[in-house]
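If your schedule permits, I should be very grateful for your opinion on a structural question. I have a record of one protein: its chain in single-letter code and its fold written as discrete structure tokens. Would you kindly read the sequence against the tokens and tell me how you understand this chain to fold? Thank you for your consideration; the sequence and its tokens are set out here.


***
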Amino acid sequence: MNHIIKYPETHPLTWRLDTINKNPIWINEYHKKNGYSALKFMLNNMTPKDVINLVKDSELRGRGGAGFYTGIKWSLMPKKNNIPRYLLCNADEMEPGTYKDRLLLEQLPHQLLEGMIISGFAIEATMAYIFLRGEYISAENNLKKAIIEAENCGYLGRNILGSDFTFKIVLHTGAGRYICGEETALINSLEGKRANPRIKPPFPAIVGLWGKPTCVNNVETLSNIPAIVLNGSNWYKKISLSKDRGTKLMGFSGRVNNPGVWEVPFGISARELLEDYAKGMKKGFRLKAWQPGGAGTDFLTEKNLDVKMDFDSISKVGSRFGTGIAMAVDHTVNIVSLVLNLEKFFSRESCGLCTPCREGLPWIVKILQSFEDGFAQNEDINILEDLCVQLGPGKTVCAHAPGAMEPLQSAIKLFRSEFEQCIRKNSFSNIEMINKKNMFKLNL
């Protein structure tokens, strides 16, 4: 919302944005807007342990989707020794419908770099990588320029600003795999291996990149760090409206009047986000369902719009907060067709490591396709429900398959009649059914 006046105290992530021309904030303007002040303050006044304790006290949660507490994650790194350790910035933003990190990467690259330098100091790393989604060309170019600017100003490199702290950042662009958003698959990909997730434990904090202690944080998470260092943990807690602290980039897409992403405090309602920020549904369209945080989250309906947008509240109504970028589904969309499209994506992006995921997702796509093509039978709904269990949590190494089941299981639960209508609409005799299935096989 352009008419909202943004202050550093109320919009720590986006107050520096050029809201008129949308230009990136380069080093000179970043300096004018208090940029790198947090880094200078930290180097003169804080130890690594102080920074970790501050972030733990702020109760900052990871913004990539899982919501793990950042300070606790940092404190899991082993005590300093002579073994190299790494900070990885997960910028492989490939969740369908999610575009929040892109805003920060393209327009506020120095804010991310400052957050990374402070985070590297906290975990006593000397080397960091940004794993960037390959399709983010503008972000790649802007980050390259920002890294050079930061190096020229002495914020990166040896003995930063005269201290004994040395830190280097390398930009790495991915090759376009959704599974690289999973932290251990990201590590494997960075090592030049196939991007399969690793079995945990051991966790990356103990055995990470090239077998060394490694911490992986999301772009938005790291971009929060400078403001916390400058303003303190109490301030950070107070700007939230819920027990999840701070602000969050949230958004709405679909047939809404003003799709976009906005920085808002945790705890505003989904209705406020849809009606005040996204300006409601377009004329002639009604809200049928919505996903609160990406393609891999359960559908909710209009009756859930007054829920608070935070991790626990969304969980209590049967979905996940995820990335916080919601998608509106209007009344003209057939839910079976929508879920088929989503499951095609998840099936294509499976790394193939685990049998339930590798074999189950294509099977689900074939069954959903049979609903579309007119030869699904009543028992197919039961098979889909059974597959939701077989591909659910605990059945695979990573959360890819369980995430893929969330839209399917909620679609059957909330809109079962639409699945049944596909069957009734296409009720054939046994002979017609056999002929139709044979035609389908030939078309394959």
